[in-house]
Structures
1.
Amino acid sequence: GDSVTQMEGPVTLSEEAFLTINCTYTATGYPSLFWYVQYPGEGLQLLLKATKADDKGSNKGFEATYRKETTSFHLEKGSVQVSDSAVYFCALRSNFGNEKLTFGTGTRLTIIP
Amino acid sequence: IAGITQAPTSQILAAGRRMTLRCTQDMRHNAMYWYRQDLGLGLRLIHYSNTAGTTGKGEVPDGYSVSRANTDDFPLTLASAVPSQTSVYFCASSGEKGDTQYFGPGTRLTVL
């Protein structure tokens, strides 16, 4: 079945550091890929997505590129801010059957000033 | 536009009691979902509904039931709560096939 493996946390970085959170997936066919963010005390919000190979999703300075050859969708940001502190979830949606999302376990990111 | 609302925000429940978590969306989305979020496990799908009048089982459906009488509402019922159902529950919805899923603020449930 479908699965998502993402970098174990927690991750602690200083402000303005470079961020990478790794995400790899296993799926049949060509799934759509997502990064969701959960700020403290809130629900999940879509951060970015990519629906086909080589697509790059971007939002709020974050980027991720759909790499079919390595089945990866790593999240990157060049200069993190304290306000980026949150839990980040990688997810995939199969293009077969229902539209359910399969999530990774989440990575807690803390940015210190 | 409110989006998705969930109620209650949090609840402490005695084991064996019946509990219904409410979810309402005002986006006229066809599909709705219930997930539970547990530390170290991410989010797991409990039940889903592709359109009003239909429901399906997700990854962890045991002990839960849902109904979808209309487009807007998708309640989740625990018939007889057990401590392993202590979790944070998120409702989500999506529109046309391939659309993004939008999440509610969650319900934190503790079963003692």
2.
Amino acid sequence: DQQVKQNSPSLSVQEGRISILNCDYTNSMFDYFLWYKKYPAEGPTFLISISSIKDKNEDGRFTVFLNKSAKHLSLHIVPSQPGDSAVYFCAARRGNKLVFGAGTILRVKS
Amino acid sequence: EPEVTQTPSHQVTQMGQEVILRCVPISNHLYFYWYRQILGQKVEFLVSFYNNEISEKSEIFDDQFSVERPDGSNFTLKIRSTKLEDSAMYFCASDTQGSPYSNQPQHFGDGTRLSIL
């Protein structure tokens, strides 16, 4: 299932700098997009989301941008902190189900 | 903060045996879900459940799988005759009003690691 793609398997960022995680999708029927964070041996933890009718949503250090014409969304974390080191999943909703990307491993170096 | 809880954290079962994975969704949530993640692969949707019936299921969710809400708090996934390829992390999730009608995120448990020998 290639409907949601996260093309960067990993990203390394210095503490205090901005982390930008990207996600592309192919299905124009998706109506809601979410970012989840996952630590080893834990389940995905909801981080932030955006409706398909918006182009930006901000929550503290986390901002999600949606470009519908490009079918692209991104998650910005600023400033990045070592505790942000985790796997980040992009997910898109269609009907009752979420379709996940493969995840990006974020490492924030102190 | 309320959370979704799953038991057991790890289940080892012989191929061909039945297994039941258990979940306690967040108490005021109405929609329940099962997902799985095979090692090295994406998280995949299995099934959604509302008002004591399946509302959507994927092609993975065949006749070997069933879900049940046996009481007011538990939500279970049963695999009738396990196969080697059923080995995966199984995640339960729930949300408040149901995805098609509201923008409420699904909240996930920590998963059950199912190992089929």
